[in-house]
User: Fold ABC transporter ATP-binding protein from Fusicatenibacter saccharivorans.
Amino acid sequence: MGKVMLEVNNLKTKYVTRFHEDVYAVDGVSLKIEEGKSLGVAGESGCGKSTLALSLMGYYFAPLHYISGDIIVDGRKISGMKPDDVRKNILGNEIAYIPQAAMNALNPTQKIIRFVEDVIHAHDPKMPRKDIYDLAKERFQILGLPEEVLQKHAVELSGGMKQRTVIAISTILSPKVLIADEPSSALDVTSQKMVIKMMRDLMEKGFIKSMIFITHELPLLYNVTDDIMVMYAGQIVEKGTAKEMVFDPLHPYSKGLMGSIIVPEEGVREQKLTAIPGTPPNLKHPPEGCRFADRCPYAQPTCRGMKPEVIELPNGREYRCLMSERKVREVYANA
Assistant:
């Protein structure tokens, strides 16, 4: 077992609406990532993926609030730290975060090198501009970005180039954990391929120690990450290796996700596409029992009244369901 870069134990966070209603978007999430490993997080919109990304950084501001649980980065507990301490000592060099549509956040009137300077000066105010430029030039070139990008404005770059530039800037301090939320969405196929290659290069060259890659596309994760966990209604419903999750999903929601997406891999592409009926539940008032019961084609009456516990299998795989592994496989075989 390698060195653990990120460990999360029973993390709970919530949104407080303007009507003072609590929305538990992350409800008891636990995960662990070792050095050199990548973890994918999948699920449809509204399942809590982006909120989980925000919550993992330990930096909270209204309307998102920390409730309980531990976040440990390379042996250092950051949950419960003061926001200023997290911003100065954790963000950027311990954990880096790339939000959705991050490329649209670049100030069009500012050169790219100024963004790099802002990131580095937030942690080392005395570092000379020449040293920052030399560091940025070297890093950009290693990651396949030409030096002239540093002297350009964001409006002069294509969408794919902007996204790769944002990733390079976000990881300039070589963080131990990179959290990327839909980093390849809204890009054409060629640009997506280049972004994914860049993420792999960051891992292989040691610029980041571990990575969390969030997307609604399970098959994409198969080609990018070592392990995948599926999120539904604020909870993790299944975790396993990328191969297990794509070719042998156990939880009915994971199976539904795979059945609703075109997958080019042999053995899956021949299967007929099916849709998951309904929508995720309202997390202001989550269901009493299984949160997927109302949409599950295999649900029994007990599923609506009994909360499913996480079932841990001998090979380290986990899923949240009232059915045993044997029962799950019997049901799927007869479906």
User: Anything to note?
Assistant: The first helix runs from residue 49 to 56. Residues 160 and 191 are 5 Å apart (CA to CA).
